[in-house]
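Posting this for the archive.
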Amino acid sequence: MTLTKEKIGFWTILSLVVGNMIGAGIFTIPAALAKYGSISLLSWSFTGAGAVLLALVFSRLATKHPAVGGPYAYCHEAFGDYMGFQVAWTYWISMWVGSVATIVMTVGYISVFIPAINKDPNLSFITGLGIIWTLTFLNIKSVKASGILQILTTVLKIAPIFVVIAFAIPEIDVANYEPFNATDATDMTAFMAASTITMWTFIGLESATIPSDNIENPKRTIPMATVIGTLFVALLYIGTVAIIDGMIPNNVLQNSPAPFATVAEKLFGSTGGWIIAFGAVFAALGSLNGFILIQAQVPLAAAKDKLFPKQFARQNEKGIPNVALIINATIMSVVLYTNYNKSLINQFTFLATLATLAALTTYMFSTVAEMVLHVRHKYEYKNDRKTNGVMVISFLAFAYTIWAIVGAGAEIVYMGALLFFGSTPIYAFIKWQNSK
C-alpha cells in the first residue's frame, strides 16, 4: 500500500502546541490549586521558567535530530533500545492519562449547561465516552481535518480568556488572595506541590516534535512553534490565573468545577457564564484533539523500531496509525470508567498529577539525551556558536524536572515508579517476540 502523508504547516503546529497546553489546564486548574492558597501564584512563575528551558531543549533536539516520535526518538538514539522503550512507554501513559484528565475537565464545563452531569456519575461517564470516540474517529479520518479543528478551537479558547482579562482587572479584591498557604504543610512543601500541578498546564510543549513526518519544513517550523508557543502560554497563564484568584474567594474557588464560568457569571451574569463555558468546552475539545493527534505517534515510532507491539505500526492509506488510535481510545475509556465515581475536581487533580509525573520523567530523560547527543556529535557542531550554552540549559532543565518530580508527593511518585519499572517484563516479551 502506498502511503500519501498529509502535511501541516506552522500555524497548525503552533495551534497544536498552544492548544494542548491552554486547553489542558487553564480552565480548571485554578480550582485544583485553590487548596494550596495564593502561594500557588508563585509556582506559576517558577514553572513557566522551567517550561521555557524545556522548550529550548526540545527545539534544539528537533533541529539537530529531527525524527518521528519526539522524546522517544531522541532517547532511543542517545541511550539505546531499553531506555528508548521506557521513554516511549512512559510518554504514552502520560498522553492517555492526560487525555482522560482533559475529558474530565470538558465534562465539568458541559455541566454548566447540563447540571445533572456534575451530580450523576453515569451521565458524566457516558458524556466522556462520547467525546473520546468522536475525536478518535475524526483523527482516523484525516490529519488535515484534525488540524483545522485544532486551529478553530485554539482561537475559541483564547478569545474568552482575553474577554475575562479585559473586564476582570477592576473587579479584583485583594482579600481573595488569602490565605497565602491554605494547607497544614510548610510553605516550601505547599509551593513544591503546587508547582507540580501547574506543570500539568505546560504538558504538550513538546507536541510539535512528535508528528515530524507530517510537518512542512520541520527543522524550522518545530523550534519556532515550540518556543513561541511556550512563551505565549506562560505569560497568559500567569496573568489570567492571578485575575481569577483575585475575583473568587478561595473557599468558593476550591469547589468550582468551572472557575472560568464562575468569573464570567460574576462579570456578565448568567448569560456571560454560558458564553464562556461554551468557549471553554470547545477549548478543552481542542486540547483533547491535539493529544489524540500525537499520542499514537510515539508508539508508532517505537513499533517501527520493534520496541512496541507491531499492531501500533499499522497505518491506513493516509499514513494515520488507525489501530493505535483505536487501542488508545479503548484504554482511555477503561480509565475513565474506573474513575467516574469520584467528584470531577478530585478526579481531575489525581489524573493530572499522575500524567504530569509521567511526562516529567520523559522530559528528564530528554534533557540528558540532549547532553549525550551533543557530546557525541560535538565535532559536527564545532562551528555552531549557538551550542555554547547547550550543556548549561540542558542541566538547568534537568534540575527543574527533578525538583518538580519530588514535588509530586510520595504517593504519586510511588505509582509512577510502578508504571515505569513494571514495564520491564513487557520489554523482555517484545524482545523475545522479535527473536522469533
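The mean pLDDT is 80. The CA atoms of residues 121 and 340 lie 6 Å apart.
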